Amino acid sequence: MMSKHAPGPWSFDGPRHNIHVRLATNPDVRVCFMTSDGPTRENARLIAAAPDLLEAAELLEKAEEAHANCEECDGEGVPEFCEHCFGRSEFIWSSAFW
After folding, report:
1. For residue 96, is it within any domain?
2. Which residue, 29, 8, 30, is CA-closest to 19?
């Protein structure tokens, strides 16, 4: 069972050594606070992308399930190349990939 998380999208702001990751829709809600001498902004960007990355992983899982049960291609090849299983999978290009 997966744990719950604050819904995305998330954003981040603040100076390099004092970054807040927040709900993009409600900046008063802080998801986390980061302070570091390391690559803080890069880490904050990755953390802020977490909801989109989770959505992308779930969409890929659905695409693989649809591909494994596809009557058109019998699960052979790449699912994105089969119009039948690609369409059934709900694997649509989302903001997570851009």
Report:
1. no
2. 30
The number of CA neighbours under 13 Å toward the Cβ of 26 is 7
CA–CA separation, 65 and 43 (whole Å)? 32
Check if the beta carbon of residue 91 is closer than 8 Å to that of residue 79: yes
pLDDT tens readout for residues 5-48: 788 899 999 888 889 999 999 999 999 998 887 888 888 998 99
Total number of domains constituting the chain: 2
Residue 69 domain-assigned (yes or no): yes
Under 8 Å between Cβ of 41 and 19: yes
Domain range spanning residue 63?
Answer: 57-91
Give the SS3 label for residue 87. helix
What confidence tens digit (pLDDT) does each residue in 65-86 have?
A: 777 777 777 777 776 667 776 6
